[in-house]
Amino acid sequence: SDVCSSDLRAMEEMVCSMLRMEGWRIHQRHLKINRQEIDIVAFDPDDDEWWIECKGSWEGNRQGGKRTDTVKKAVATAWYLSLVPDRPHYMLFLSHRPLVGSSGDMMLREALDHGLFTDIRCIVD
Predict the structure, then answer these.
(1) What is the DSSP letter of 64?
(2) What is the pTM of this model?
(3) Fewest CB atoms less than 10 Å from the CB: which of 12, 61, 62, 106?
């Protein structure tokens, strides 16, 4: 099997486990909306719906948000999904945080400030 896809599946499982420990309920995985896949659909402890995008890897020297191309894909997906009427909360879960002050860091800050993401979390800071 493909290393990248198995690494991403492991990342998604880790995110689901972390959310469950916080009292979230995982509702659906790999939901297609407008030909775009939502990795996880979950409900937080207040029963608010969230769409969650998982990006990351433990392979290589630049994992997760340290890769500018990964951040660009996440921001583009967030923009596209922001066009969906009544879109629920949208969270980006990265394996690794971008380096502070990097292009990826700046893009994510702007995307968060402009409402493309409701929240951005990282497994590794």
Answers:
(1) G
(2) 0.89
(3) 61
Q: Give the tens place of pLDDT for each residue, 33-66.
A: 989 999 999 999 999 999 999 988 666 666 777 7
Nearest CA among 82, 85, 94 for reference residue 39: 94
Nearest to 71, CA basis, from 96, 37, 44, 42: 96
Distance separating alpha carbons of residues 30 and 40, to the nearest angstrom: 6
Contact criterion met (CB below 8 Å) for 26 and 20 = yes
Asked if 57 and 89 count as a contact pair (C-beta separation under 8 A), the reply is no
By CB atoms closer than 10 A (0-12, 13-18, 19+), residue 95 is: buried
With both helix axes pointing from N to C terminus, report the angle between 68-82 and 103-113 in degrees, rounded to the nearest 10.
Answer: 20
E-only strand ranges, 20-125: 25-33, 36-43, 49-55, 89-96, 119-124
